Amino acid sequence: MTLREQLREKISAAFYRHGLLCASYPVPIILFTSASILTCCYPLLRLPLPGTGPVEFTTGVRDYSVPSHEPQGDLGERPDWYRGPPVAYIQQVLVKAAVSPWDSSLVTVDVFRSPLGRAFSLLEEIRNHVHSDSSGVRSLETLCLQVTDLFPGLRRMQSVLPEHGCLLVSPGNYWQNQRELFDSDPDLLKTIQKHEPQRPAHLDLLFGVPGKYTGVSHYNKKKVVTYTMTLVLSRYDARFLGSLRARLKQLHPSANCSLRDDHMVHVHFKEEIGIAELIPLVTTYIILFAYIYFSTRKIDMVKSKWGLALAAVVTVLSSLLMSVGLCTLFGLTPTLNGGEIFPYLVVVIGLENVLVLTKSVVSTPVDLEVKLRIAQGLSNESWSIMKNMATELCIILIGYFTLVPAIQEFCLFAVVGLVSDFFLQMFFFTTVLSIDIRRMELADLNRRLPAEAGLPPPKPGPLRTREAPPPPRPSPHTITLQTPAFRNLRLPKRLRVVYFLARTRLAQRIIMVGTVIWIGILVYTDPAGIRTYLAAQVSDQSPLGDPGGGGLPPHLGVAPVFRGGDPTSTLGINPAPAPTPIPDNQSQEAPPPSVPQITWGAEDEEGWRRLSFRHWPSLFSYYNITLAKRYISILPVIPVTVHLSPQEAIETRHPQDTKHPPPSIPKVAADIQTDLTLYKVAALGLAAGVLLVLLLFCLYRVLCPRNYGQNGVTHGRRRRGDLPCDDYGYSPPVSEISPLLLRGHSMDIECLASDGMLLASCCLAGQIRVWDAQTGDCLTVIPNHGGCWEQRDGWESVSGAAETECLGSEAHGSSISGDGLSEGEGYPLRRRTAPSRPTLFTDQPDLTPLIDTNFADQPPSHLCTPPREGFDFGGLVERAYMEHEPPSPSAYPSPSSASSSPPSGAHSVWAMELRGNLIAAGRSSGKLELWDAVEGSLRCINEDGVSGITALAFLNNRIVAARLNGSLDFFTVEINKPLGLLQYRGAPGRGSMPPSPCYSSEDVISCQLTRSVQCAHQKPITVLRAAAGRVVAGSQDHTVRVYRLEDSCCLFTLQGHSGGITAIYIDQTMVLASGGQDGAICLWDVLTGSRVSHVYGHRGDVTSLVCTTSCVISSGLDDLICIWDRSTGIKLYSIQQEVGCGASLGVISESLLVTGGQGCVSFWDLNFGDLLQTVYLGQSSDGQGVRQLLVLDNAAIICDFGSELSLVYVPSVLEKLD
Amino acid sequence: MPRLEDHCWSCSCASRIETKHSSGANWLAHKAEEMMSIITSVLSNAYGSLHDVRTANLIRRGLVLFTVGAFLALVLNLLQIQRHVTLFPEEVMATLFSSAWWIPPCCGTGAAVVGLLYPCLDSHLGEPHKFKREWASVMRCIAVFVGINHASVKLDFANNVQLSLTLAALSLGLWWTFDRSRSGFGLGITTAVLATVFTQLLVYNGVYQYTSPDFLYVRSWLPCIFFSGGVTVGNIGRQLAMGGVEKPHMD
């Protein structure tokens, strides 16, 4: 037991170290593995290529002896299969017969009737030939291959093929080798063609030459008939064959015959695969693929599922190749059919280990380093992997001792395969896995620090196509519903690969190159083989392939080349050999074919080459003899020339022969015959081409996105970018929603506030408009006329109350004191505080000695004009603004436009809040105004401060105003019922204010400054938020302060940022998040003032922050949206947006995020980070960025869009999310 | 359309939601089931009482098993014929499919019975089968089964005893690798015995014939094949039953 545990520990430790190694040096290890795979596969190059047909080997006749069974070392070119005796020796007697001279009185039938008749006498001659010498008497009967029954089920062949005796095939078999039957046959052609549909045709089988060269037809212009008698011998007896050859030559001398007879060709046949063998094979492969499919689909939680699945399959396949290669290297030639045992090997080796590894690694803690994760995952599974491996090896070992050769071989392969598979798993797959997991983390890193990491910023992936030239849209103001990307974040990566493939058409090119290489190899190894092979496929009439051409140089040029001297053989018997010259022969011979000449060409030497390469296997298969993996020896042909006189021909005529009509269109028919093959080839080639194109097309469609390059025109990049969703073939409906455009402002919208029912907006011109948030109707317009509330009745007011809050703008508070006015006039320009650059105020003098930071000591008195610091912040801000204006991306008003704003007295609104039907507007002059949103009447004005109000918070009956000078003013809104007068200076009465923010128009509303915290911050306050009874102010001075709303008491000063505060979020649950110019985001506990977490997420300022119950969403100047886990502070993922986007954020529901972009707003699925859809606000989307975005209670979104407001309802999105 | 979207959602959520055997987990069965559902709907219309979900499910599983069994029988029969005939002229193929047409249906029926019996027996014995319950393993099992058949066909053994022993070892290995349950072993043995007896009877009555019988009237490796076949079909049946049980849950 202890031993076992020790072993286990050791194995685990070893695997751990190995995992560290693999994850540390991925590239060298992968290179090393690839090299070893290639090395091990190298011996495979020597194995013959599949699909090259039968192989030949030529030896001389004279010194021929039956090769022995044992391999005899290296015998030069001798192939492996040339061992032992052949299945049979084939001796062909090639007969060319013609009636000469040709007489015009002869009919067409005479061309072949009497020549064929001669076959019977020749047959007789051969059968009766006896050779006797000292060693005894030998006849054909003793040498020939004795056959028994035909294969059962071949009844139809019984009439033509010999049974129970010598296998001797000749045309005479048509007539059972009986002359009488032949003579009484009225129509020879009919008899011959009776079996024509057979393939290979009986004609070929019995004639021994391809049908069209036999000359047995009505249209034979050469008047020469060619046929062979095929003797199949089981033993080779040189003397008998020699005497037979001499005898036949003596009887029928061939005058001009110069055929060589010193070579015999051995033809080795590959194993044939018929349907019967194919079905089980295909079945096993189908099962194999199903197995692989079901296995790999279990891979999960990795960066690229497909990549890993591919790696797994590659691992298994290359381990198999390696095992075969190694076995070959050590002299173990595979005798098993590789294709057959392959699936079983895969199943034995299996993908389990790979899957187990993956699962184990991905289940390690995510926050660990990649190295450690890999190492841990490996060591966790080490014991089970080793155990399985040992078990499998044991089983295989047992199998090895069955002592059955085939099983032994299989086991040997399996052992080597298992070991190499283990090797590959450990080195190749583990490394790939580590790369994959590292990629997952790198992807996050990339987003966090694009420049620092030295990596190019990620290409705008499909998810983020915001920047681009806006896609042409069909109609203005329509929402292009993006195909919802219901997919994880890692999808785009995978898609990029697909896109890459599609863009470069890599797949097609690889296929094409592969095909070309394959064909090239085939052509190279076998010059004549391809063509003959193809021709044989087209029609079985073509000659036996010449595949092993490398081995027999003398035959290389034989088949296709028209030898010199052959053209003269025009009327000659055109036997097997003359393939190409047919048309030539015809044209030359056509005029006066009086004397058919029988010529012998070099082609006749190996007439059998013209036969289908299946000729011999099929002949033998009829007798249940297989040639698969065996060979036959073909002896040199014996040429026989027969000349017949016209008288002979006429004598042998059958009475009906003359009744045949003379050939009417012989030439055409012949042409047709020869052309037919050509047409067949052409048609087949065309069909194959079409098929190939279709196949490529299908592949293309599979690999490429559906509308790649097509819809791009109409929908632009965005459309294309969303194609990931079509992964499952699902293309969602495109529904178009028009955003509601609220027009009326003459200048850009500056402030925006809403309380759900009403919507208040304020433009640069200072005009405030109140809208119905449901319908988009403009309810009230409050013009900017310098606080002249007397004129307000000139504007129609309908109903509702609205209030706006403008966070981004700095209100320039105006105080009653006179110097405030002059100061206020000094700042006609406005600047947005949120994205203020950190460098803005660096030259600011240190004011700390001037400021009394002891706030607690300050009495809550109404110090309207406190002992102000002697430093003019206004001038500083203005100067800084002038300097830094251009870089700010959003459309700030230019100085000229600012100067066109109402002159003195009509100060622009810097901050606005809306609660109930009261609009609180903070002006640049420091004035705080309360307007009735419904009636558009000014209810109250407070001019206690002179410094511009930069931010406002309106909660219950309190208003908090942050001023440019860093002070915080707390106001209380009071309502005095009875008085009908406008009493903007009402007496301060505390506590009478009802909490409900409903103010009737009769009420007299007063706004009382309850407390002013001077120098709440040492630098301008940039953000102000109020919730849950707390007011939180963030400032340029790197701190966040939390005040209690009731008593304006400063509870905490939160320090932790190293830059100015730019964004704050607080909600009812007292969660406080702050973001600063340093790119950091801090989460605070408001109750204790402690920092919960502190993360760095952005390279620039954090521009906005939103929290949901589970996560924190931040956006920064680096156009990145980061989603953080709220409890742990771990970044879940980030979304790279396009340049100039992402300053505004909103959360509609727990899982729906909305961001503003250039002329559009985008909806994101928070759970997965997928872009759900993008809504375009207007036609010209570029240039106009959405800077502010408010989410209303009814799931509508209001955002500014230049001088317009957009109200967007997103019902469809919500439906899906709910 | 909502269905499609649901589908999409479930796909995208698949990585998060850990559905071990989600609806997509067995597309093979699904494809077959989809085809079968048409037939079953016709059947259930004919027998109005069969609207019961359980019964329909049972019929579906039975049909899938029948198809698998018949197909395997056809393929393996081809393999067996190769044992005796090395080359197939086309004429033989025609007679092959016509003569022994009843073999695939018989085997299919047997497969359906055995495949339904396995999960049934499991539930009766109260020991649900937990070992390697996934389609990849089932596929592997089928592949090994075909491999055993292949081996029985292709390998040249010195004598039949050796062949039979090897096959017996392989069959036991199959059971050990993929099943490892007592009920599976028992049912496999029962199947083997019954099927062998049945075949003996058939051959005795001259319905069928083996070329060179060495075990009474049949080949001695037949029980091994039947045993491994029983285990394989039982594996499929169990997997199908699991999918079938889970499906109503998902709905």
From TrEMBL, chain A:
Belongs to the WD repeat SCAP family. Keywords: Cholesterol metabolism, Cytoplasmic vesicle, Endoplasmic reticulum, Glycoprotein, Golgi apparatus, Lipid metabolism, Lipid-binding, Membrane, Repeat, Steroid metabolism, Sterol metabolism, Transmembrane, Transmembrane helix, WD repeat. The chain crosses the membrane at residues 20-45, 273-294, 306-332, 344-368, 389-407, 681-703. This is Sterol regulatory element-binding protein cleavage-activating protein. Pfam families: Beta-prop_SCAP, SCAP_N, Sterol-sensing. GO terms for molecular function: sterol binding. The keyword Endoplasmic reticulum applies. It comes from the Eukaryota. Residues 277-435 form the SSD domain. GO terms for cellular component: endoplasmic reticulum membrane; ER to Golgi transport vesicle membrane; Golgi membrane; SREBP-SCAP complex. It is a multi-pass membrane protein. Escort protein required for cholesterol as well as lipid homeostasis. Regulates export of the SCAP-SREBP complex from the endoplasmic reticulum to the Golgi upon low cholesterol, thereby regulating the processing of sterol regulatory element-binding proteins (SREBPs) SREBF1/SREBP1 and SREBF2/SREBP2. At high sterol concentrations, formation of a ternary complex with INSIG (INSIG1 or INSIG2) leads to mask the ER export signal in SCAP, promoting retention of the complex in the endoplasmic reticulum. It is found in: Cytoplasmic vesicle, COPII-coated vesicle membrane; Endoplasmic reticulum membrane; Golgi apparatus membrane. Residues 451-479, 567-595, 809-868, 884-906 are annotated as: Disordered. The lineage of its organism: Eukaryota, Metazoa, Chordata, Craniata, Vertebrata. The gene is LOC116036112. InterPro entries: Beta-prop_SCAP, HMGCR/SNAP/NPC1-like_SSD, SCAP, SCAP_N, SSD, WD40/YVTN_repeat-like_dom_sf, WD40_repeat_CS, WD40_repeat_dom_sf. GO terms for biological process: cholesterol metabolic process; regulation of cholesterol biosynthetic process; SREBP signaling pathway. WD repeats lie at residues 1054-1094. Residues 893-904 have a biased composition (Low complexity).
UniProtKB/TrEMBL annotation, chain B:
The keyword Membrane applies. It comes from the Eukaryota. The gene is insig1. The chain crosses the membrane at residues 63-81, 101-121, 157-178, 185-204, 216-237. PANTHER family: INSULIN-INDUCED GENE 1, INSULIN-INDUCED GENE 1 PROTEIN. Its main location: endoplasmic reticulum. One of its GO terms (biological process) is SREBP signaling pathway. One of its GO terms (molecular function) is lipid binding. This is Insulin-induced gene protein. InterPro entries: INSIG_fam (IPR025929). Keywords: Cholesterol metabolism, Endoplasmic reticulum, Lipid metabolism, Lipid-binding, Membrane, Steroid metabolism, Sterol metabolism, Transmembrane, Transmembrane helix. It comes from Sander lucioperca. Belongs to the INSIG family. Mediates feedback control of cholesterol synthesis. GO terms for cellular component: SREBP-SCAP-Insig complex. It is a multi-pass membrane protein. It is found in: Endoplasmic reticulum membrane. Pfam families: INSIG.
